[in-house]
């Protein structure tokens, strides 16, 4: 019995470390030097992609469902029956049933299992995992989710991706709204640290005001642990979900447009909190 991990990015690298501490873990990364570094650092085994099909649980953590399709197709003919594929990508709920059906034809079970908690949560092994798919497959996998602090079965195939998209859309709304509010306070001459001190003891608080803005924006550090382009992608998925069900969500629509603009004007590879630099330009203030 061994596990496999595909995609050693900002999240995958520390997630796979917890797996390797618990059991034999095969790893692959497109830039293969990163897999070799993981082997040297954490005792995992860097292998060609096709060899990862030997594992009975295969994890993937890639930017979007498109890259997951690429690795699935590259593994066609190598996958073995009774494997469980656990996709920790923040993927698209419309792709999950297609990917699950494709895998089922090859005898492989599917779980969409995106995570939240950021790079810090991945390093600490305390990620929240939201799982869509077959409950029995999850029970097989659950003891081996070494990077998880909390695991919740949220429904059938695709439900994990849907919950993740809505969670991150809420993050985007809260972050943007806090940025606009703080820009107004800055223009009014209010000290922003004092303002955050009050907001965080009051009803306007959120993770954005309690953690992100104080640690990343006011310090001007904007450490790139979660790319702005990935958050814009997540908000787009949230909006697709609304459209699929013919919902009405004008606030989410505006949020998607704002993050697409920020991605272009500030830069997709910047940290997601750097979206507030666009609000700074719009208001001719600096959030310091
Ligand atoms: P990164 O950009 O840091 O890593 C992306 C990984 O995907 C790298 O290993 C990269 O390989 C690989 N990759 C990219 N394109 C391809 C491809 N065409 N074929 C094969 N491999 C590819 O992303 P994150 O780790 O930050 O994010 C991964 C997922 O997790 C995303 O869906 C994101 O939304 C989600 N997420 C991110 C969080 C965060 O805080 N960063 C928090 C929670 C979820 P290479 O090294 O060669 O570039």
Describe the structure in your own words.
Keywords: NAD, Oxidoreductase. Residues 158-279 form the 3-hydroxyisobutyrate dehydrogenase-like NAD-binding domain. This is NAD(P)-dependent oxidoreductase. The structure is a single chain. The model has no long low-confidence stretch (mean pLDDT 98). Strand 1, helix 1 (12-22) and strand 2 (25-28) form a beta-alpha-beta unit. This protein has helices spanning 12-22, 32-42, 65-74, 95-104, 118-124, 135-141, 159-187, 192-199, 207-217, 228-244, 250-266, 276-283; strands spanning 3-6, 25-28, 45-46, 57-60, 84-87, 109-112, 115-116, 127-133, 148-155. Strands 1, 2, 3, 4, 5, 6, 7, 8 and 9 form a 9-stranded mixed beta sheet that branches. Helix content is 51%, strand content 14%. It has 2 domains: 3-155, Rossmann fold, CATH 3.40.50.720; 162-283, Orthogonal Bundle (N-(1-d-carboxylethyl)-l-norvaline Dehydrogenase, domain 2), CATH 1.10.1040. The N and C termini lie far apart (52 Å). It is α/β, with parallel strands linked by helices. It binds NADPH dihydro-nicotinamide-adenine-dinucleotide phosphate. NADPH dihydro-nicotinamide-adenine-dinucleotide phosphate (NDP) binds at residues 7-12, 29-31, 34, 61-63, 67, 70-71, 89-90, 115-116, 118-119, 225-226, 230.
């Amino acid at each position: 019995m061994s596990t496999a991990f595909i995609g050693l990015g900002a999240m995958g690298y520390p997630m796979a470390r917890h797996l390797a501490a618990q059991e034999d873990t095969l790893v692959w990364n497109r830039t293969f030097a990163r897999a070799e570094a993981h082997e040297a650092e954490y005792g995992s085994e860097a292998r060609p992609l096709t060899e990862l099909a030997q594992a009975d649980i295969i994890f993937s953590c890639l930017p979007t469902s498109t890259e997951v399709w690429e690795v699935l197709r590259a593994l066609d003919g190598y996958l073995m029956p009774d494997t469980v594929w656990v996709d920790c990508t923040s993927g698209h709920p419309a792709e999950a049933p297609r990917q699950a059906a494709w895998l089922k034809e090859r005898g492989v079970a599917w779980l969409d299992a995106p995570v939240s908690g950021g790079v810090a949560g991945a390093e600490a092994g305390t990620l929240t995992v939201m799982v869509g798919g077959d409950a029995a497959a999850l029970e097989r996998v659950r003891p081996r989710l070494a990077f998880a602090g909390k695991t919740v079965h949220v429904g059938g195939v695709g439900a994990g991706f849907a919950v993740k998209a809505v969670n991150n859309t809420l993050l985007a709304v809260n972050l943007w709204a806090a940025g606009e509010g703080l820009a107004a306070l800055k223009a009014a001459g209010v000290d922003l640290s004092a303002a955050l001190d009050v907001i965080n003891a009051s009803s306007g608080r959120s993770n954005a005001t309690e953690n992100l803005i104080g640690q990343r924006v006011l310090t001007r550090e904007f450490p790139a642990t979660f790319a702005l382009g990935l958050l814009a992608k997540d908000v787009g998925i949230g909006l697709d979900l609304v459209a699929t069900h013919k919902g009405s969500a004008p606030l989410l629509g505006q949020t998607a447009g704002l993050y697409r603009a920020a991605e272009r004007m500030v830069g997709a590879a910047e940290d997601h909190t750097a979206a507030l630099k666009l609000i700074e330009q719009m208001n001719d203030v600096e959030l310091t």
